[in-house]
Every structure is written in structure tokens, then in C-alpha cells.
């Protein structure tokens, strides 16, 4: 009977049939539904642990020019906080305080004169930071246009063709025209001259990357900022910059 069951399960694509020898492994475990019966935690751990071997190895991920190694103590602290609902700042005020100190440290690293009162937030990754920064630029631009009695239905954003995919996602989610400075010859990043050709009064901002995802190169933030200041003097249009410091923000200063 059991043999038949195992055979049937083997033939059925939607079940996972583990090869371990423990008694409970003689039953197949469904892949897409919660099993009717419980399974021992160590069995579940082994199963999922082994499935994850199929993933890439993050220690060998050199694609984004950042290291993924951390001290075991850092991992220990993280695991001690897994069960906290970080967004609930009333219940976990000390976590909120430490988050705030990290923001101050980052502001200090970037020579902010008011680093002890700097505003900021932690995010799950740079993609979320891009969403928040991008949204702030869109709302500021929209307020400015409304005050000037101008239409607000055609926002655009200027970036290099080398930007990380999160900026394209941002533009898609928020209905923004993504204007790309194309790579040319040996130039794989945006520069001031080319960025300036794409901006207009509907530009919510220009993304400049410190640590291009393609080759790790820093884009010329000052050059672009100076060019946008000159553009403002000539046209009266003030266009902000978002510096994407996903890989360089802790290193560049
Ligand atoms: C320049 C740049 N911006 C944004 C991101 C997105 O970061 P995350 O994967 O942490 O969301 C990356 C990630 O590689 C990046 O290199």
C-alpha cells in the first residue's frame, strides 16, 4: 500500500518526494499546499535547507561590487530581532532609537552639520529607498507645478542606461517617463552634457549613481549638480538630484 502511494507520488509532478531515510519521509510532501499532517521541524529544516542549495552563493556574488560577509555577532543580533515588528515604534522603542542613531551616523559620514537631528529611515534595500526618494521628488514636482497652474500629467525622470532596474520599476509604478542617457563608446555612465539634453520642466529629478551596477564607476554628481544649477539660472527651472548610493554610500565619504 505504502509502496503504491510512494510510486503514485513520484509520478505526480506537484509533490516533492524527498530522498531521506527517516520514517516520515516515506510520505510525499505537497509543494503547493499545507500538508494535512505535521512534519518534524528538523525534517522541514533539512528539506528547505537543501532546496536552497539551488540558489546562487551570495558570498560569490560580485555583481554589485559589495561584500555580503558579516560577523557572526551581526547575524546573532539580527536573529534576536526576527520576531519584532519593527514598524511598531511604541512597542520596540530601543530598536527605533538604534535605527535613528544609524541614520545620524550616515549623515555624519556625509558631513551633515546637523547629523544628530538628521531625518531618514531604514529600508529593506536600495530598491525601497529609490521608491521613497522618487516619490518625494514626484510630490515636490507636482506641488510646484500646481502652484504654477501647470499640468501634472507628464512627469519624467532622467537617468543613465546603466541604472539599476529598481529605477525602471519606480517609473513604471508611478507612471513616469524614464529618459535614459545612452552609453556611447567607452562611456557607460551618464554625464552632465547628455543629461542636460533630456531635462525639461516636467523632470522630477535626475538619478546619479555612486557605484554603477554595470562597472562600479561613480557618476559625476558634482558635474551634474553644477550643470543643473546653471540650467536653473538660465531657465528658472529647479531640478533635484537623487544620488543612488546603493553600493558607494558607505565607501565614498
Ligand atoms: C546602484 C544600485 N541601485 C539600487 C540597487 C537595488 O538595491 P536592492 O537590491 O538592495 O534593492 C542596486 C542593487 O544592486 C544597485 O547596485
How are the SSEs ordered, and which strands pair?
Elements lengths: L1 H10 L3 E2 L12 E2 L10 H11 L20 H10 L11 H17 L16 H22 L8 E5 L4 H9 L3 E5 L10 H7 L4 E7 L11 H15 L5 E4 L9
Helix pairs in contact: 7-8
This protein binds pyridoxal-5'-phosphate.
The site of pyridoxal-5'-phosphate has 13 residues, from α5.
Give the strand order, joined by hyphens, for the main sheet. 4-3-5-6
Q: What is bound: which ligands?
A: pyridoxal-5'-phosphate
> Which percent range describes the beta-strand content?
5-15%
Rounded to the nearest angstrom, the distance between the terminal CA atoms is 68 Å
Describe the overall structure:
17% of the residues are buried. Strand 3, helix 6 and strand 4 (177-181) form a beta-alpha-beta unit. This protein has helices at residues 2-11, 41-51, 72-81, 93-109, 126-147, 165-173, 192-198, 221-235, and strands at 15-16, 29-30, 156-160, 177-181, 203-209, 241-244. The strands form 2 sheets. A 4-stranded parallel sheet has the order 4-3-5-6, with helices on both faces. Helices cover 40% and strands 10% of the residues. It is α/β, with parallel strands linked by helices and 253 residues long. It is elongated and about 85 Å long. The protein has 3 domains: 2-54, no CATH class; 64-117, no CATH class; 126-244, Type I PLP-dependent aspartate aminotransferase-like (Major domain) (Aspartate Aminotransferase, domain 2), CATH 3.40.640. It contains 8 helices and 6 strands; from the N terminus they run αββααααβαβαβαβ. The structure holds pyridoxal-5'-phosphate. The site of pyridoxal-5'-phosphate (PLP) has 13 residues, from helix 5.
Amino acid at each position: 500500500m505504502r509502496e503504491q502511494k510512494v510510486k503514485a507520488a513520484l509520478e505526480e509532478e506537484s509533490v516533492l518526494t524527498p530522498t531521506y531515510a527517516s520514517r516520515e519521509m516515506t510520505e510525499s510532501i505537497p509543494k503547493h499546499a499545507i500538508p494535512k499532517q505535521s512534519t518534524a521541524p528538523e525534517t522541514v529544516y533539512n528539506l528547505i535547507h537543501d532546496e536552497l542549495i539551488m540558489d546562487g552563493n551570495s558570498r560569490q556574488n560580485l555583481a554589485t561590487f559589495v561584500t555580503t560577509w558579516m560577523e557572526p555577532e551581526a547575524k546573532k543580533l539580527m536573529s534576536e530581532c526576527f520576531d519584532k515588528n519593527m514598524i511598531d515604534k511604541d512597542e520596540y522603542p530601543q530598536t527605533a532609537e538604534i535605527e535613528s542613531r544609524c541614520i545620524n551616523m550616515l549623515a555624519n559620514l556625509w558631513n551633515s552639520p546637523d547629523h544628530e537631528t538628521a531625518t531618514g529611515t531604514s529600508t529593506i534595500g536600495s530598491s525601497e529607498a529609490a521608491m521613497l526618494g522618487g516619490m518625494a521628488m514626484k510630490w515636490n514636482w507636482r506641488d510646484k507645478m500646481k502652484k504654477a497652474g501647470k499640468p501634472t500629467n507628464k512627469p519624467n525622470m532622467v537617468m543613465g542606461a546603466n541604472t539599476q532596474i529598481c529605477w525602471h520599476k519606480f517609473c513604471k509604478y508611478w507612471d513616469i517617463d524614464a529618459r535614459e542617457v545612452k552609453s556611447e563608446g567607452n562611456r557607460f555612465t551618464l554625464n552632465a552634457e547628455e543629461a542636460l539634453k533630456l531635462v525639461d520642466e516636467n523632470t522630477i529629478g535626475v538619478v546619479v549613481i555612486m557605484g554603477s551596477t554595470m562597472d562600479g564607476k561613480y557618476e559625476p554628481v558634482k558635474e551634474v549638480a553644477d550643470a543643473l544649477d546653471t540650467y536653473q539660472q538660465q531657465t528658472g527651472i529647479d531640478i533635484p538630484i537623487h544620488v543612488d548610493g546603493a553600493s558607494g554610500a558607505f565607501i565614498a565619504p
